[in-house]
Amino acid sequence: MLSEIVDIMSNCRHCVVLTGAGISAESGVPTFRGQDGLWGKFRAEELATMEAFVANPTLVWEWYNWRRELMGKVEPNPGHYAITQLEKLFDRFTLVTQNVDGLHRLAGSERILELHGSIYRNKCASCNQPFADDLHIDPDSIPSCASCGGRIRPDVVWFGEMLDPEIIRTAFEESERCDIFLSIGTSALVHPAASLPAMAKRRGATLVEINLEQTPLSHVVDYFVGEKSGEFMPRLVEQLQGREASK
Fold first, then answer.
1. Taking Cα atoms as reference points, which of 237, 238, 188 lies closest to residue 209?
2. Is 116 annotated as catalytic?
3. Would you kindly state where each structural domain of the chain is located, as residue ranges?
4. pTM over 0.85
């Protein structure tokens, strides 16, 4: 199967990669779903909604500071680094991620669309103006926006909020135009991200899913790879680089 995928990708020019919690889990970042997920320990409605922030901003910031500390201890894995190398092999490349942990950027990826924001960024809860990323937020003394006086919140998409329209528009445009689409470590359950791979296939792209378990997407993909991305992606990239070098 690997050789077939390499054959196809060697003749492609436009690649889109979609990543989800699975690739971060390989680095030790807890997922939100599953028996050991963070949502199994906390109620989402108490921590990840605007209503929760308005009702108890101190609790919300205590949780996000804890998450930042937790994620600050993990590093990109071979899957992240392989995607960084993959980016260099295509004329046009877009990485669409549902993850907020910043591991793709840490690994060196540049053409990234962060659908759900970044846990390391801050913004005003009222006017959305960006706030200093490197500032530690004291949950008992949350800073206010200099422009409107609103409280500062994490720059992530909470439940009930809309995705950034420009980011999601670009994600759909790139997916419509690509000739190879890789879906890596995502449950294929959360929309609108879950619509991207199927739409790419409808537009003629070859669709490859890399995930330990099958998903609702698995029955429509061209290739399903039931492996960890950190094991499969380095092999894939190595062979693609070999093909490129021999041209």
1. 188
2. yes
3. 2-29+74-116+160-246, 45-72+121-156
4. yes
